[in-house]
Amino acid sequence: MLKFLTKFDYLLRETLLGLRRGGWMNWAAISTITVLLFLFGISLQSTWQLERLLNQFGSQLEVSAYLQTGFQAQDLKSAVEAIPNVVGVTPVTKEEAWANLVKDLGVSDIEGATAQLKGNPLVDELKVKAKDSEAVPAIADQLKQMEGVDEVRYIDEAVTRLAQLNQGLQWASAFVIAILTLTATAVITTTIRLIVLARRREIEVMQLVGATRVWIYLPFILQGAAFGIAGAVVAWALMFGVQQFLTEIAAQQADFIQFLAQGLSLTPQQLILLPTALIGLGTLVGLMGSLLAVRKFSLR
Fold it and tell me: Could you give the residue ranges of the DSSP H alpha helices within the chain?
């Protein structure tokens, strides 16, 4: 145990010494990783938020199937529930629909309004809720083919646009993140190489006394990981601040904006997964850069 603590203390001291000698290059590496992880985090968070918003729209914008005259919604309910990806079916009789319509129009005399139109002009309706937004078009097509269904309506424009926006954002983010990953790796590689060159004589002494390559260069590798973790912490702090600011603004706006803000909020699992992903990517980029830097020297 004592031997392990001694080795750990040595690695920690050597890593901190290398970071102090990095100077302004440390800030260049950390700031580059921060920008990379901030954009990566925004991209990942936006993807989650748009998917949740799509699902929220999918649950709000139900498929409405209007039946032909003479067919009752209750009779078709079981057949509609058997359609794949259908999670709920609400039958609405023409009497209920007529009562709601008259109420919305502000007419108090339902019987008088019915008499003027010589009866109830509406038909039974089935309100079908899909499992997710992507299943809505397929469910609508199957409803149209059912006997007794006269017309099927659903609002798919918003869902389609959001899906296209989400896909375009993912491609654009992947391209930008790939470029920034290469940039961050190059900056870290350069920083670690400069630190290694500054400590070249110490390394030569360690080689003469029999220190292994792993023991010599491991602190430099840990420095790269430290850059990644520091960048992840800063990026997460910036994202958290932006999220809190937008939440406070949305809370003061109209109901529709609050509805969007609710859809754009993250789940507790995602709130844990996001910083974990930032730290993981930051550490990976830092390790890649430092490994590339020490590889050149360790092969000599």
Answer: 2-22, 24-60, 73-81, 94-104, 110-116, 136-144, 157-198, 200-208, 213-251, 255-264, 268-298
Q: Are residues 202 and 235 in the same domain?
A: yes
CA distance 82 to 137: 16
**Contact call for residues 123 and 68 (beta carbons, < 8 A):** yes
Give the per-residue pLDDT at 256: 45
Report which secondary-structure segment, H or E, holds 133: none
User: What does DSSP assign to residue 108?
Assistant: S
Nearest to 133 by CA among 156, 106, 112, 104: 156
Write out the two tokens for 204.
């030569």
| pLDDT digit string, tens, across residues 243-274 | 777 777 766 655 544 545 555 566 778 788 88
Enclosing domain of residue 16 = 2-58+159-298
The answer, yes or no, to whether residue 114 has pLDDT greater than 60, is: no
Digit-coded pLDDT (tens) for 23-46: 677 787 888 888 888 888 888 887
Confidence of residue 234 (pLDDT cuts 50, 70, 90): very high
* φ/ψ of residue 23, rounded to 5: 60, -140
d(CA 57, CA 156): 9
Helix (H) or strand (E) holding 85: none
DSSP 8-state code for residue 61: S
Dihedral sign for Cα 131, 133, 138, 140, please: positive
Q: Is the pLDDT reported for residue 195 higher than 80?
A: no
In this structure, the number of other CB atoms found within 10 A of the CB of residue 130 comes to: 25
The number of domains in the chain is: 2
Separation of alpha carbons 32 and 159, rounded Å: 36
The C-alpha angle with vertex 136 and arms to 131 and 141, in degrees rounded to 5, equals 130
Kindly state the average pLDDT of the residues 157-176.
72
> Which domain CATH number covers 88?
3.30.70.3040
